[in-house]
Each structure stands twice: as C-alpha cells, then as structure tokens.
Design goal:
Blueprint (H helix, E strand, L loop, with lengths): L7 H10 L28 E4 L14 H5 L6 E4 L1 H10 L6 H20 L5 E2 L2 E7 L2 E3 L3 H8 L4 E2 L5 E5 L9 H9 L2
Parallel strand pairs: 3-6, 4-7
Antiparallel strand pairs: 1-2, 4-5
C-alpha cells in the first residue's frame, strides 16, 4: 500500500495520459463511471507505483523509492484486479521494466488515437459471405484497430452487408456450371 500522497495535479495528468483506462497490457478497461449505481461521474481506478514509494514495497529501492514517489513517469493507472496483481499476488512476475513498457505502450496508443483528426473518420462497411463451409465476418475490433494511425471509425457501429447462411457455397461446381451455360 502506498505511503505517499500523490497530488491532485499529478493524478489528473496521469488519468488524462491513460485516457481513464487501465494501463495493464491487455486490459484497457474504462475506469470512469460507478459500476453498481450507474453514476457516470465516479472514478474507480488506482494510482500505482512502478517503483514502490517505500523501499519495502513491491519493486522498492533504497534510494529511488523516495525520489520517484510522486513522479508521473513512475505512476500507472490500474483497475483493482491489476493493482492487486502487480503489488500483492504476483509482484515478482512484474518487474519495473515490464510495467514501464506497459505504461509507455498504453500512453503511446492513447496519443496516436487522440491525434487522429475528425476529418479522418470513416464509416466501416463489412461484407460477410461464406468461404467454403465457413462464415467469414471480420470482428469489429479487428477492423477498427487496423484503421489507426491514419484513420478512425466514425462510430462504434458497422454497416454490415451479409450473404451468410446460403445453401450454396463456392465448392458447388454443379451450380456454377449451370449458371455459366445459362449465360
């Protein structure tokens, strides 16, 4: 548990750099809004130290702990689950270098996403059709992720054109032969 009180200005800057999301690799959950009551003005993230603010804490150091205790470069925004994980449940599996990479990667993604200009927004049209016996519709998150850093989705919805569930597939040679002879 942290012993140092991080000032509000530094906390606000950290929340902004993290875009209000958990910085643990693969999590990215939104930390704004109260889960139970539905209040949208609540924040439930935790400001965590990469190098503990105490020499006895997780990743603590005799001299660096005091020097880095209030330094934003040493702070991460985490959800409750990942805060417990890095400080208590699996502290040895989370060395300073790994946490620093997670923080840097997350903040870089936020900067890239936020720097895309509004005129670079695109509506996404997905076309889904059978490939052999398999339905092939690309996941929205995969499409949205592939658009950056040059473009961004105009909304969280896609325009879907689907030809799924047809009784014919591309291996039905007899059908295609009949179609060709009718031309």
């Amino acid at each position: 548990m942290a012993k140092t009180k991080v000032d509000q200005k530094t906390q606000r800057a950290l929340w902004a750099r993290a875009a209000g999301r958990c910085q643990y690799r693969g999590c990215n959950c939104e930390l704004i809004g109260e889960l139970l009551s539905g209040k949208e003005d609540k924040m439930f993230g935790f400001v965590a130290h990469i190098v503990a603010d105490s020499p006895n804490g997780a990743r603590g150091h005799p001299t660096r702990s005091a020097l880095l205790a209030k330094d934003i470069s040493n702070l991460m925004l985490l959800c409750a689950k990942h805060h417990r994980l890095i400080d208590d449940e699996a502290a040895l599996d989370h060395p300073e270098e790994l946490l620093q990479r997670m923080k840097d990667e997350h903040e870089r993604r936020v900067r890239i996403a936020a720097s895309i200009q509004p005129d670079r927004a695109s509506h996404v049209i997905r076309f889904g059709a059978n490939i052999g016996m398999n339905e092939a519709l690309v996941a929205k998150d995969d499409i949205f992720g592939s658009m950056q850093p040059d473009r961004s989705p105009a909304s969280f919805d896609t325009i879907d054109l689907e030809m799924l569930g047809l009784s014919l597939d591309d291996a039905d040679a007899q059908y295609w032969q009949v179609q060709q002879t009718n031309l």
